[in-house]
Amino acid sequence: MKKIRPVLLGILSISLLTGCWDQTLLKNVRLILGIGFDKAEGENVLTTFVLPDVSDKKRNAPEIISVTGETAREARGNLGKKLTLVPDGAKNRFIMIGEQLAKVDIYAVLDVFYRDPKSALNAKISVVEGRAESLLQTSYMRKPNFILNLDKQIVSAESFTIVPEENVQSICTVLFDPGQDVILPYLAVGEGTPLIKGVALFNSKAFAGTLDTKESKLCLLMADRMGKKASLTLPIPNKTKKIGSKMTFRVFHAKRRLDLEVNNGNLLVTLDLLLKVEAEEYTPDHLDEDGQASKLNDYLSMELTKEAQKIVQKLQKANCDVFGIGRRIMAFHPNYWKTMDWKSNYPTITIQPNIKVEISRPGIIF
Prior knowledge:
The chain has helices at residues 4-16, 72-80, 99-102, 107-115, 132-136, 146-159, 172-175, 213-222, 292-317, 325-332, 334-338, 342-345; strands at residues 29-31, 34-39, 45-51, 63-69, 86-88, 94-98, 124-128, 183-188, 195-203, 206-212, 231-235, 246-263, 266-281, 350-361. Helix 8 (213-222) crosses helix 9 (292-317). It contains twelve helices and 14 strands. An eight-stranded mixed sheet has the order 4-3-2-6-7-8-9-10. By secondary structure, it is of the alpha/beta class. The longest helix has 26 residues, at 292-317.
């Protein structure tokens, strides 16, 4: 009896197992690897799908199909009418949104991803200059492994502090946050590969402006969102415009402080940013001479502060609160927050950036 009891217990346990009731076999679905959204005629959405090649030729080049629907979900259903297998977005790697559609409301096409439990919420998301379909239909998009290469291209830009590290899941809460706005990678058609032009600025859920790659680096540093690396290039003082007239330094430490001051109903925001840098390229040398590094620190601080002021002006013009100033007001000045309309007030408040640069590492030569 003692020997039979474990056997009976094992059989009973097996009967309680659920098995593979929720499995999805690859032979029964057609994976979607990338999606592009554009505004179509009327209120319709043009959706471009990137699908892996399943033909007998085994070219490994993706198949790109564009369909139209009244909603993003209906467009995917219309895609199913053109395929012999059910389309499945569980392995989707990126989402591209055309400029015209992004200016209206990006959440209109993202809602379906948050409601579907099988959605790939770690997919990268970006805004495309012009139409997403135009970018996805270019010849280099039909090369083998282009999806993997595009994903690596975005990840590389994130590590170099050119674009923010975002995906479908990370932007969801910010889209509904009245005290903060998102910025996303801004892509365009390039030669041989998609071109990263900078970042797209958002006013709530609508695309409202752009920053180029130089501006996006400093903007991300000011937003306390430095990637693994960050290099900045500026003209060398008192140098004519020629090769060797600019210098490059690498930021290895960044410390930001954001202070708010409310006085008689007026808001003053002070953004202090300390950058400790290493000289990577500086042709005049002699950084070891007395006062030379100090003078260069003052010059770099002044130039970057000017650039920061221009960036702040663009952010306020686009009504994009990427620094989360509204979130700070809600936390530390809740009564003041209740008396104001943040989206109306943000473009008119005073934001004062102060950038301080310290050359702590001159490199192996002076």
